[in-house]
Design goal:
alpha+beta, five-stranded mixed β-sheet, 5 strands
Length: about 160
């Protein structure tokens, strides 16, 4: 038995691009360097569970490096987190972001990027180039306040 295909296109599902801006452009925080980016991430991080599981978050920025918004992309286990790039870039496109800053934590406190961290960062940078969304930084955050490593500062985004 063959499935029937609708011919009335007026009943198609609609996909809507929505960005709910709550802050005036002039009042949006700036993320011009790794320290400012870290402070923004620290303000939304769950510090009660930072030693228990990895989390992955992203900041979306405009051309002036003002923050359009942030997204908690994924929560994982003690030593890994799985990220779906498509969801992250869908949100970036929805918000008309021209730049992104990534962050994930290492519950162990060891800020050395793993091979998987570096490979993933490279993949995101290359995917972003296709979409004209620049990867500005990727922070690895430790469980102690003010403990982070910037892959941009370390020259790992080249």
């Amino acid at each position: 038995m063959e499935a029937q295909v609708r011919k009335d296109w007026s009943v198609m599902s609609e996909i809507e691009l929505v960005y709910k801006n709550k802050i005036k452009a002039s009042e949006r925080p700036l993320a011009t360097d790794s320290e400012k980016a870290y402070r923004l991430f620290a303000s939304v991080w769950n510090w009660d569970s930072i030693e228990l599981r990895e989390e992955f978050k992203v900041l979306f920025l405009n051309n002036g490096r003002r923050v359009l918004g942030w997204l908690p992309v994924a929560t994982g286990g003690i030593s890994a987190v799985s990220i779906d790039q498509r969801l992250m870039f869908a949100a970036a496109l929805r918000g008309a972001a021209t730049g992104i800053i990534l962050a994930h934590n290492h519950p162990s406190g060891n800020l050395t990027p793993s091979t998987a961290d570096l490979v993933f960062t490279r993949e995101i940078r290359l995917s972003g180039e296709i979409l004209k969304i620049e990867l500005l930084d990727h922070l690895i955050i430790g469980p102690q306040r003010n403990q982070y490593l910037s892959l941009a500062d370390e020259g790992e985004l080249v």
